[in-house]
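User: Hi! I'm working on a homework problem where we have to compare a predicted structure to a textbook description. Could you give me the structure for the chain below?
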Amino acid sequence: MDPTTTEALIAAGTALARHGLVDAFGHVSARTRDGGWAMTRGVPLGALTPDDVRPFDPTADTLSPSLPKEGWIHRAVVRARPDVGAICRAQPPTATALASAGVPVVPLHGQGSFLGPAVPVHEDPRLVRDPEHAARLAHDLGRGPAVLMRGNGAVTVGASVAEAVALMWVLERSALMNATASAAGTARPLAEDEQRAWRQVAPELCSRIWLYLANEETPQRRSTRP
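Assistant: Happy to help. Predicted structure tokens:
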């Protein structure tokens, strides 16, 4: 397994767990340097070891038994989105609650613009454990960076592990802001031109977010770079 990809996926799992975006469940996959894919096993992401990062073949018609059953999500997204280099599946609590309440997550601050004018919601709350359901989820994701799953968390995608994980963190932060603003008064989303201005700097700022997420735990992590 590509050690760089393995290290990035382990750092991603640690960061997602530390920030309360996953608990017993969640998984991350990424394109490897040789053009293949790797995915985390179905174990708690906060305790990943190198052995928990396994090869993943999105062209196969079956899913390896060593991978989580929701690996079908990753397969469907890879097939629908050749531009994607990493996929993050997590359970951001506030974002999940808003999706269940029918409250849209819209950009109320600059980083929220990274997710588009409104985060789409996949309305089927059942576990995604077959290729047909996964294909419907990928369809709801569309060309965007994130999709909420009613009663079941979220999926974010990016060009890299850094971007996909940073966007999951942004999704939860944006949801918290939406919940707070809605409780305080009338939420005022950014105008389209304001959103566009922020999206232009998304890669740079996602890189900064990843440095914060991946490097804060231990001195050893401080060498991690996107």
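For your comparison, note the following. The chain is about 40% helix and 15% strand. Confidence is low (pLDDT under 50) at residues 217-226. Good luck with the assignment!
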